[in-house]
Amino acid sequence: MDLSLSTRTVGDRTVVEVGGEIDVYTAPKLREQLVELVNDGNFHLVVDMEGVDFLDSTGLGVLVGGLKRVRAHEGSLRLVCNQERILKIFRSTGLTKVFPIHTSVEEAVAATD
């Protein structure tokens, strides 16, 4: 399966909607998108992972890298996910302590840093 990406602005946040699989083959596409957004001055990102079917360690690495990039600019990266199989990956790796994870884009956009 391929990776689909789209972006939109909601308030002062840039929402990246991700669909498909984030793995060793598709993660570079997500990395490029996050780097481009930060380079364009978008430092408050919401990654909507509701359409993600699979996430591996390469995908986790890309998300952590994105978080480091936005934090270098006093920014934030919030995740939207309520799929148990994906949430389990974040819990088992301890990344629930690193990423704010929300159940909806609206909740993530409304959250304060």
List the SSEs and their pairings.
Elements: E1 3-10, E2 13-22, H1 27-39, E3 44-55, H2 57-71, E4 76-80, H3 84-93, E5 101-102, H4 105-110
Parallel strand pairs: 2-3, 3-4, 4-5
Antiparallel strand pairs: 1-2
Give a brief description:
The chain is α/β, with parallel strands linked by helices. It contains 4 helices and 5 strands, in the order ββαβαβαβα.
Give the key terms.
single chain, 113 residues, alpha/beta, 4 helices
Across the major sheet, the strand order is 1-2-3-4-5
Biggest sheet descriptor: 5 strands, mixed
What is the averaged pLDDT score? Answer: 96
H/E series, N to C? EEHEHEHEH
- The number of distinct β-strands equals 5
Report how far apart the termini are: 34 Å
Shape: globular
State the helical fraction.
Answer: 25-40%
Radius of gyration: 13 Å
What structural category arises from helix and sheet content? alpha/beta
Strand % is 25-35%
SS summary, helix count? 4
Explain the overall architecture.
This protein has 113 residues and is an alpha/beta fold. The chain contains four helices and five strands; from the N terminus they run E-E-H-E-H-E-H-E-H. The chain has helices at 27-39, 57-71, 84-93, 105-110, and strands spanning 3-10, 13-22, 44-55, 76-80, 101-102. A five-stranded mixed β-sheet has the order 1-2-3-4-5. Helix 3 (84-93) links the parallel strand 4 and strand 5 (101-102). Helix 1 runs parallel beside helix 2. The longest helix has 15 residues, at 57-71. It is globular. The termini are far apart.
